[in-house]
Amino acid sequence: MMCVQQQFNGWRLLRWVGWVLLGLALVAAGGIAYGLRSTPDIDLGVHATGSVDAEVQALFLGTSSMAWTDGKTTWMVDGFFSRQALGRVAFSRLDVDEQRVLEVARETFNRLDMPHVLSGIVVAHSHYDHALDAPFLVKTYGGNLYGSASTGQIALGQDVPGTRVYVTGKEGLANFGQFRVELRESAHAPTGFTGGFNTAPLRLPAHALSFKEGTSYSFLVSHPLLGSGPFALIQPSAGFIPGQNNGVAVNTVFLGTGGLGKLDADYLAAYWQEMVMNTGAKQVYLIHWDNFTLPLMQQGLPISLQAMPNLVDDFSRSLRELKKLAKRDSVNLRVLNAWDIVEFPRPR
Question: Is the pTM higher than 0.85?
């Protein structure tokens, strides 16, 4: 009788422990779900649409994707427009969402009032939110693709001819009409998704984790209408190599902030020092702050960006701290929304 009672008590204890563990799991799942739904409310102001007669323009397209034109030539950074939903990223293999990419590309060319032709694309690094759609875009609209050997394998996996894939090492150069774009080795933000190279053609569909970082780049942009040297620095990722901007002088920096809100204050200050103070920039535009699992267009119409969920990043903190630094250093700081156009007037 005692043995039966002991077994009964044992089962009751196990059942109680099971219910406790289930409850904890539900609480944790609820916390994760809340964190993924909870996003900071960012005041983005009014869309900047640009003027018809601007000499050089850059159209921001979420993450670090941008389209640049001088009225004669159009080229892109990354061109990531598929922006798959979180469930697809986490639980399935990814492919180019051709309909979505074409829709965004058409809207891009129309807003810039340019023919639907590309001179080329430079790719920041080989993660899917930078490199997935670039091969499809150059196959569809022309031009060459520039990036690391890791990015080159993604292009080859999508059957881009090798003659149109320009692999760079620590540095490289892309000429698009009168634009000169220098690729300079930089670093990814220190997150858990850095490192690795694609060493063979990456065939689609492929899981997000199959897109290895390769080399991360920053881009220095020059155009003779805006002087003899570079006028803008594009820093796609919130990472840096100390001293990478030695000798660089620009007025404008496009500053990637993805993941910056989860890093400590010393890192944030050092990042600002390298990218802004060391270059002498007086205008900073924040990029790669948005939730890239949400689309750029809905029902055929462009829509605004939303920040990454608080569980993933803390853009409110990044913005708050960067505003303090900008005020201290007399730098004009602005958060770019999707479809904003930045103009670069000819010097007088």
Answer: yes
